[in-house]
Amino acid sequence: MDTQDPSVPPRAQSRIADNKHPNRGHHAGGLIHDNTRHTARFTVIGNHLTQHPDLSLLAIGLACHIQSLPKGARVDIKTLAARFPEGATRIAAALRELETYGYLHRERTRIPGGRIVTRTVSCNQPAARRHRRDKPSCPALRPVRPAEAPAEHPRRTAPKPLPAVPRPSCTAPALLQAATDLLASLRGHDSRLLLSEKDTAHLAPGVAAWLERDVSPTAVRQALTADLPPEGLRRPAALLAHRLATQLPPPPPFRAPAAPPPVRHPFQTCDGCDRPFRAPVPGRCRDCRTDLVEAA
């Protein structure tokens, strides 16, 4: 029992002594923090971003700047390039990095005017966002494995009906034909505005209501094709119906009917003096009629 194993160390040895850890202890050239507690105008940013192992320094700095901005601030490439000296190309690359790692994502939204705009959403904790998205709504539920998932048959959903359009007070065939021709000509201004026959029949009364209000076809065409979104139009007929309804101009001002032109009677030859005069029927001129009255 008194025999000792020479290969066993006399006592347990720690991996690295506390005072020999590379990030501990005092170093002559190491970093020293001179911190003062913030009480106003500060932003809390996680080390998972500021010390991210894969993001570039420009992407990390840009993410910190974006997270410090108020809601509604513009963070498009043009605005950021005007604010910083790095240039549009490097800023665009940094934004793509942040999208790849979940710190930014973009969504397209339709605004009241009918345009589709792209909005940027800044996420300060992408891991927490992914956790909320993947977490089941009920704790008792377990995610179904792909092999066990039942085969789902795609359901055909009826297309959403188009928005209602104004109706003209007069449904003359010539007016509706002019409206239909105007809608058919929109494809010449933008190839995305190629409408089906069904959509054209739905929109034609709305265009006729504009034409009925003394709006020229050129003005109607300009209102329908101006400021179209640069992104692809999924339902151009819905956009046109929205514009026809929301931008309908008021009726023209009331104009009193013009007075009829004076009636010009043909020339007649006087039966008394053979002098020409204007009258609806043959007879005597005014002077001859006056002489007859005085003689009587």
Overall description:
With 296 residues, the chain is mainly alpha-helical. The protein is 35% helix and 7% strand. It has helices spanning 47-50, 57-68, 77-83, 88-100, 126-134, 173-184, 197-212, 217-225, 236-246, 286-295; strands at residues 104-110, 116-122, 267-269, 276-278. Helix 2 (57-68) crosses helix 4 (88-100) and helix 7 packs parallel to helix 9. The longest helix has 16 residues, at 197-212. It starts with 46 loop residues before the first helix and ends with a helix. 11% of the residues are buried. Mean pLDDT is 80; it is low at 8-18 and 137-145.
What descriptive keywords fit this protein?
two-stranded antiparallel sheet, 7% strand, mainly alpha, elongated, 296 residues, 4 strands
Strand content: 5-15%
Order of helices and strands: HHHHEEHHHHHEEH
Span of the ends, CA to CA = 176 Å
* SS class: mainly alpha
Cα Rg:
42 Å
Number of extended strands: 4
The description of the largest β-sheet is: 2 strands, antiparallel
Specify the overall morphology: elongated
Any low-confidence stretches, pLDDT <50, length ≥5?
Answer: 8-18, 137-145
Short overview:
With about 300 residues, this protein is mostly helical. The protein has ten helices and four strands.
